[in-house]
Every structure is written in structure tokens, then in C-alpha cells.
Design a protein that fits this description.
- This protein is mostly beta strands and about 300 residues long.
- The protein contains 3 helices and 18 strands.
- Strands 1, 2, 3, 4 and 5 form a 5-stranded antiparallel β-sheet that branches.
- The radius of gyration is 19 Å and the shape is globular.
Amino acid sequence: GQKPGNDRFLVYYSISDDAVRGDKGVKCIGYATAAWPQMALVDSGSPVLCVNGTQANQGAPHAIDPSVMVDDNGRWWLTYGSWSNYGNGTHQGARGGGVWMVGLDPKTGHLSDAALRICGEDFPFCWDADAYDPTSHSPWLNIANHRGYDSPIGYIDGNSIEASYLYNNRQRTGYYYLFVNWFWCCKGPDSTYQIRYGRSRHPTGPFLDRDGTDMKDGGGSLLLKSTMKTKTHTFTGPGHAGILYEEEHDRYVYTTSYEAIDKQNMQLDVFVMEFDAQGWPMLTGPFTSEADSTP
């Protein structure tokens, strides 16, 4: 979600419905609005976009894990996309899944006119089959991949990346930041999720990690992975970043969900995030509700 102004909030979300049109694998992104402080969410009434199993098999990302950012020029960008077993698809070894970006219309919160023209009568099932061609000038941009991962349950040569979060910090560090998750979630103590990141001077990338590798080519610096918190509580599989800049205390609040071996369910952890002198993010400690704890 984001706060575009005044007391109005937007929340982008994803849903899965394998029964839609009889095509298994259908997933959709939508959005709802709410006003502070009631925060009663009202849906926009139409999906932003959907992807079905046929499109995914042709190389499209699943329509999950949306993140929306406004750049310094007021343009809105949606990132989304997914773990994909592209090794079983028609683009074996070269395409499939990944994190993608497409422009939104700031007035409606839905796809830009350029993207809607490509959707045509298939809307809300939207995908540009030419998006992999760099000369096509497609409104869809592939910005991050993590290909070549063999999963423990049979996915071969998968593109194990999802849960993107795009953050604009140009005014302070000069960069846009892309956070993603690698590997496998939702397996209890066997979860292998890691949070990785890169940055760019431009909202559409390329997003480079600390070694200068493009995230589109598999780059991504490690920010957070499974760690032992106590002898009986393990922080396992941290996933899907969220960042809030707290103006009152001039600090960045970084949230992530994770699985713990003591309770076998998802939990929330909150950190304080800072940027070093070179503009790279780092988690510096646990979050407390008051920056100054003195009475």
C-alpha cells in the first residue's frame, strides 16, 4: 500500500483462483482504497491484471506479490512476479517467471494506456508475448531473475524469485531500491527464503547489487536469511520486505514475515534500517516503538 496524499491509502493485493475460466493457475492483482483512520477497504471493482496458466507457460510471470512505487517524476510503477518452473514450459532454459515492472495510470491506479492496448479484448488477462525482445519497446520490463534453482519437490531449473518491493529513496541517497526473495518459502523449518536487493539511479533499472551484477542476470546482495534468535526460537525464511519512513524519529522501519520452528507458523519481525555512506541498506537492530526510550 501507499499514501498518495491527504488521508487516502491504496492497498494492492493478489489472489489466486484456479477455477476461473477452467484454466488452472489463474492469479490476479487488484487494489482497494481506504481513508484514515477508519481504514475500511473499498475495492476498485476491477482487476489491475491477471495471468492464467497458459500465459505462464509462455513465459509470463504469475500475477502475485504486487509492489507500487511513485518515482521522482510522478510516474507510478507496479512490480510483481513469481517463482516459476519455467523448465517445464515452452521457454525452457531461457525464460519464464521473474520479477517484472509495468507502468500504471496515476489517475486510476490501473494499467497505463500503453499496457491496456496490448491487453486488448483479453483484459484482464494481460501479457506481452514480445516482452523478452529488447527491441519491442514493450511496457513490460523484466528487472530481476534467479534462474537455475532445483527445488526439493521436483521443480527443475526454476526461476526462484518473488516478493518484490520497490522503494524510492532518491531524495536521500540518490537511488531506487529493489528488494526480492530468493529460494523457497512456506516449508516451516525447511524454508530457504532469503531477502536480496539491488539499486538503480533510474526507476526502471538496471538494479545492480554490491558487486555490480544486474539483478536481471541473477544479481542480488544478501540482506537477511534464516538466523537463530534464541536456543528455542529460530528465525526461518524471512520474506517480502516492507519499508516505512518514520518522519517523527527520522528512521526507516523495515518489516518482514518469517516462520519459526517453535510455533510452526508465520510471524512478523520489525527492524530499523539505515543506509551507509555509499547508500547501501543495512539492518541495524530491532525496532522499538519509541526512538527515545527515556521516561
